[in-house]
């Protein structure tokens, strides 16, 4: 439900701001993400790992308070730098105007609260109470949607749109913070010995995350020096869809990580192998049809979410959906690398990806603009997946079985063929009778084709014996 609300809100924002306004919106959020990652310092993954073996009724420990305090301190420090740096860039480049600097200053609150929310979610994932995470997110999305509607009704500018993000994330954090009191009464407290140990454990993960952000968002930052706000807006619209979709693998990996970590630490290798394989299969069943579905429905998705001004974003969406699928697997593998204490080695892998991608952006963007940037994003995400999987195999000597992945590919191809035939029929009728405007035609196509494609895909999975009823129940129940 949270994903649906996010998509609706994204559609409202893109249509309200237009290509120029959404370009400013995208530029501000992309710029701030670098500072948000700096404040993260890998503390979320470290917290999950540190509390994996602590009983649920004994979570109120100094290590939890120390990590929470470090997150607050790092957030205040790094996010305070963001508007200063944006202002300094604006002295030399007109693309960073006063509106951009003001937007950066305003939106620091959004990144501060979502960073704290992420940390609190580790506690709920540990105690297997993801319902609190879902409730807080749902209420936050409702607040975001309502406040966005008010901003649109009053015809307010991009700064007011950004303020809705701050408000919704603050509400989300408040709910999570109050709910954690049942398990941990969080307070600002630093234990120096623990702090030094946490920083020692966290810095490789932090550096890896920073490298990841360079190849994930470096393209938008570099584009901001070469292209207009309108072009960045058209590039940012598919990215917005991507960012909504990749929330799922992050939540999924966060839920399975405590169990996988505990299995590895307790040397239950059979359970570890089984959890790893089932997690990979579950993500395969979602990521692969996602590619096929978006490839065929991209023009209609862009029309419904962003509008006719963004139709040139269709090609970008089709490219970036490949990167999205890679992120599904990369998120899972990245979390498992940390569970295996291989984050220092993975740091070098992420560093290589970041450096090569950054050099590639500098070469490709001036010549091929957004298309080149999108394909380099695919390159970087796929390479990161390959490196992290290689590290897992090297450490565990366990190889994944790809049989179900192949069956998911065949089922997705079957779904694609069915949808192509349905669209051929729809297009023939529409061209002959011209019953609807393109927006309502696109909306009708999505309403029909998304559930139809999902049904065909699932039936093909059962036909190929990739899924069995008992396994479906197990996949749906994340706690199990």
Write the layout of secondary structure elements.
Layout: H1 2-40, H2 43-50, H3 62-90, H4 98-126, H5 130-153, H6 158-180, H7 192-226, H8 229-245, H9 247-265, H10 269-305, H11 314-339, H12 343-396, H13 403-433, H14 438-463, H15 469-476
Helix pairs in contact: 1-3, 1-4, 1-5, 1-6, 1-7, 1-8, 2-4, 3-4, 4-6, 5-6, 7-12, 8-11, 9-10, 9-11, 10-11, 10-13, 10-14, 11-12, 13-14
Give me some keywords for this one.
single chain; 480 residues; mainly alpha; 15 helices; globular
Short description:
The protein is mostly helical and 480 residues long.
Report on the architecture of this protein:
The protein has 15 helices and no strands. The mean pLDDT is 84. The radius of gyration is 22 Å and the shape is globular. The chain has 480 residues and is mainly α. The protein has one domain.
Number of domains: 1
What series of H and E elements makes up the topology? HHHHHHHHHHHHHHH
What fraction strand?
under 5%
Mean pLDDT: 84
Main sheet? Answer: none
The percent range for helix content is over 70%
State the separation between the terminal residues, measured CA to CA.
Answer: 21 Å
Number of helices, counting only DSSP H or I runs of 4 residues or more: 15
Q: Residue ranges: pLDDT <50 for 5 or more in a row? A: none
CA radius of gyration: 22 Å
Structural class: mainly alpha
The 3D shape can be described as: globular
Question: Care to count the β-strands?
Answer: 0
């Amino acid at each position: 439900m949270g994903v649906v609300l996010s998509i609706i809100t994204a559609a409202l924002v893109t249509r309200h701001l237009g290509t120029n306004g959404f370009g400013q919106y995208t530029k501000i959020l992309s710029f701030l993400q670098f500072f948000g990652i700096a404040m993260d310092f890998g503390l979320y993954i470290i917290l999950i790992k540190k509390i994996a073996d602590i009983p649920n009724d004994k979570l109120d420990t100094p290590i939890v308070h120390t990590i929470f305090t470090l997150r607050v301190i790092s957030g205040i420090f790094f996010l305070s730098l963001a508007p200063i740096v944006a202002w300094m860039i604006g002295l030399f480049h007109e693309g960073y105007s006063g509106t951009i600097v003001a937007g950066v200053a305003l939106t620091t609150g959004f990144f501060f609260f979502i960073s704290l929310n992420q940390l609190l979610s580790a506690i709920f994932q540990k105690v297997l109470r993801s319902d609190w995470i879902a409730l807080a997110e749902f209420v936050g999305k409702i607040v975001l949607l309502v406040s966005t509607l008010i901003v649109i009704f009053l015809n307010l500018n991009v700064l007011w749109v950004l303020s809705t993000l701050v408000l919704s994330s603050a509400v989300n954090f408040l709910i999570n913070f109050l709910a954690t009191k049942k398990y941990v009464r969080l307070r600002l407290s630093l234990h120096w010995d623990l702090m030094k140990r946490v920083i020692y454990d966290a810095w490789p993960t932090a550096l890896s995350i920073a490298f990841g952000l360079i190849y994930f968002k470096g393209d938008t930052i570099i584009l901001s020096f070469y292209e207009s706000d309108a072009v960045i807006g058209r590039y940012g619209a598919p990215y917005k869809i991507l960012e909504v979709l990749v929330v799922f693998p992050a939540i999924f990996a966060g839920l399975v990580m405590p169990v996988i970590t505990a299995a590895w630490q307790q040397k239950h290798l059979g359970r570890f192998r089984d959890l790893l394989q089932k997690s990979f299969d579950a993500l395969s069943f979602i990521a692969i049809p996602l590619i096929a579905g978006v490839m065929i429905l991209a023009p209609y998705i862009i029309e419904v979410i962003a509008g006719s001004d963004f139709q040139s974003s269709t090609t970008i969406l089709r490219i970036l959906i490949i990167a999205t699928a890679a992120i599904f697997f990369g998120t899972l593998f990245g979390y498992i690398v940390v569970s295996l204490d291989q984050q220092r080695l993975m740091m070098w892998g992420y560093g290589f990806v970041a450096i090569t991608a950054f050099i590639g952006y500098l070469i490709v963007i001036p010549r091929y603009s957004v298309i080149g940037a999108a394909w380099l994003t695919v390159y970087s995400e796929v390479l990161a997946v390959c490196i992290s999987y290689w590290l897992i195999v090297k450490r565990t000597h366990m190889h994944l079985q790809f049989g179900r992945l192949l069956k998911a590919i065949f089922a997705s191809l079957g779904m694609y063929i069915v949808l192509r035939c349905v669209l051929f029929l729809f297009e023939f009728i529409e061209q002959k009778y011209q019953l609807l405007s393109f927006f309502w035609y696109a909306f009708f196509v999505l309403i029909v084709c998304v559930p139809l494609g999902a049904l065909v895909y699932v039936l093909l999975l059962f036909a190929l014996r990739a899924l069995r009823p008992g396994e479906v129940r197990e996949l749906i129940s994340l706690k199990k």
